[in-house]
Amino acid sequence: MKRYTRRPYRFLPAFFLLVAVATSAFTGLPPASWVAAQEPIPSAIEIFKANLAAETPILNPFQVRAQFEMDGNQMADVTFGWSGGATASFRAKLPFMPGFGEIAGAIRPSGFALIKFGPTTQIVAPLVPYSRILELLPRVFNRELLAELITSQEPAVRLQGEVEIQGRRAYVLEWQPTLETLLDTFKSIFVKLTSDEAFQAFLTESGVPLDEIAAGLDDEAWQQELAKAVAETDGFFTVYRHYVDAIDYVTLGYESYTPDSPEFDKMLELLAPQVELEDITIGADGHIQQLVWRIRIEMSPKEIADLVAALEETAADGQEVENFSSGKDDEKTEDVAEDEDQVTGAGTNGAVQEPADDQAQDSQDTKEQAIANGKAAEEQPIADGEAIAFSLDMKVVLSRAGQSVLPTEVSGLVKVDPAAFMEAVSSFEGTGQLPVPLGLEDGFDDSLTPSSEEALEPEEHTFRLTLQWDTTKGADPELVENTQLKSAERSWQQALEAIEAEDWEAAVAPLARLTRQIPTFVQAHFYLSNAYIETGEIWAAIGELEQVIMLQPNDWIALNNLAYLYVDQDIDPERGLELALAAYDLLPDSAPAFVTDTLGWAYYKNGDLEAASWYLEDALVLLANENGAGMYEPEEYAVHAAELHYHLAAVYATREMYDQAKEHVEAALEHNPDLEAARELLAEVNEALAEATAESEPSA
User: Fold this and answer.
1) What residue spans define the domains of the chain?
2) I need a labelling partner for 223 at 20 to 30 A (CA). Which of 75, 270, 337, 534 fits?
3) How far is CA 479 from CA 120, 124, 369, in A?
4) Which helix (H) or strand (E) holds 146?
5) In whole angstroms, what is the distance from residue 527 CA to residue 511 CA?
6) Which residues pair with 239 in a beta bridge?
């Protein structure tokens, strides 16, 4: 059986660009004929931006209907809509799941979501407890930030020239991320996001040290250390070559190589599918109407085994990768490392520069030869009669949708031979190169091997995915404007406004509505418990906190608060101690002062005075350290300090250590003169000290 060999280029639509960048799996031949760039032409970064705009639907609202078939049977019919930020919807029919009917859902910028199963409607609370994060999503996913990120890549993107592909002029871009460009990108993100006052306030309140991060990004010593570490890592930065149509700015080809690690490239040859631009349809206006790509993969058992060996070899630090190229040429790929100054590129005005001298041209030739070597090796045919463990023959069609060219059909045939797969895996049994799956410690079942009379039969399946794009629509308004969804959102907003104003009475009603609408909304139950505590409804607060720990058993804050109520109100001290220990154990090395205080107070209420003294004294030290680190406002610190000193005073008074008790109770009143319990305790301590003094005096 022969491999397909009709591959003038190794190409990849930009729709799959992120996958390609992540895997660096696409390598191939250089352009067949270079031509001089025509003037005037845009700069490299302008081409990069235009290409992204032409092939990336997230830049604008859209709606897409996806229909998926397997072996001629409809498996799914899904319509997805996006209106920007965190506003999206979907409707899905899944015939292979009888009884479900239509499933639909939507999410709004607040993070509240709607899920519909047939006639049943359910509101889902934000996936994270901090709604402000979700409120910031529209600020993160926006065109301005995207443009900022693209612009930050300008030093890494070079315009190398032009090439003709099936009668179309194409710009040749090379993009190699470097340490500098990665840092610049991070700086751009940081500056852009922190320039938003709401986002900056959120990060500051969350304890993110913005000033330290900003200073660190400009720290030359740190950058030099990072550069040194990167320089010692072979294959860290891959070069990506991108062919962009000179009229419509859509992708006509893509390939990559790693200058400093030919071994890394050689390994990826085993992963790389054969990707070919098969056809281009041009409209009467001269614009591209359709692109057809062909993607083919064939892997024999030996290739699978070689791939595992390659991954194993690459993982070994400093170990040279040996021959794992599935019977291909053992000759090493030439070293394609090149000096930055030798790479031909475009100036800031977009004019393509010619190579500076013969040495630069030699460097270019070396680079082209490296790519050619990799492709030539990969095109070696699989021997006739050799088993194929896995094969894929897939067609990807991209069609014009408004101003974009987007995927409209993905179809093909996939073949799998389980017995051949087992042959490849069995070759590693006992070698230590593959982890032994659970249950197979005693070896593979002989009934699953190719030698078994009941060997698994090869399978083949056809599939087809069609995509219908509508760039004039966004999220489904019937779903995103759902009455129940918006009602929950309004209740949450009212509750947050009341909490911000510390109007706890006003917060009770909207929070109670939310807990009825969304019984699993942990944050609503937690805030409602706080509101009940502040309004004196202790039993109601206990009920809400019990709900929280039932839904989220490891919520140490809820465990601590519930423990304190049971202990401090003398409702159930034993249960309180159990909960306090659970909260403390969840933070073995980092329990804050208020959690340690609760545990010490729980021990006191349960009669263990020695343990109580130990934990409360520890809490006092922790509180001082936390205050020194700026964790408290002055008024907040005074409340915590007064309560903690009062607890210690109560313990020492019970132990009849009245001098220590008086010291702590006076400190409590110094922090909070209105703490009535401390005043009462001080009177008791003074009385006890007076009695002790009287008893010690000799009688007249």
Assistant:
1) 480-693
2) 337
3) 13, 13, 55
4) helix 143-152
5) 7
6) 257
Give the per-residue SS3 of 106-123: EECCCCCEEEEECCEEEE
Helix (H) or strand (E) holding 405: strand 404-416
* Residue type, position 471, single letter: T
Task: Summarize the confidence of residues 102-111 as an average pLDDT.
Answer: 88
Residue 380's alpha-carbon distances to 3, 31, 278, in angstroms, are 7, 20, 21
Q: Which residues contact 588 (CB under 8 A, 6 or more apart)?
A: none
pLDDT digits (tens, 9 = 90+) for 263-315: 666 666 666 678 889 999 999 999 999 999 999 988 877 777 776 666 666 55
* CA triple 201-202-206, angle to 5 deg: 115
User: Which of the pair, 667 or 329, is modelled with greater confidence?
Assistant: 667
Whether the Cβ atoms of residue 243 and residue 170 lie closer than 8 Å to each other: yes
**HSE on the CB side for 558, CA within 13 Å?**
23
pTM summary value = 0.65
Question: pLDDT exceeding 70 applies to what percent of the chain?
Answer: 67
Q: Where are the alpha helices (DSSP H) in 518-608?
A: 522-534, 538-551, 556-568, 573-585, 593-605
160 contacts 174 by C-beta, under 8 angstroms: yes
Please give the Cα distance from 381 to 1 (Å, whole number): 8
Architecture of domain 480-693: Alpha Horseshoe (1.25)
Residue with tokens 């409590």: 668
Paired tokens of 621: 């030290």
Is there a contact between 174 and 239 (Cβ–Cβ < 8 Å)? Answer: yes
d(CA 277, CA 375): 16
Distance CA 63, CA 104 (A): 14
Q: What is the phi/psi pair of residue 411, to 5°?
A: -145, 160
Q: What is the mean pLDDT of residues 231-238?
A: 59
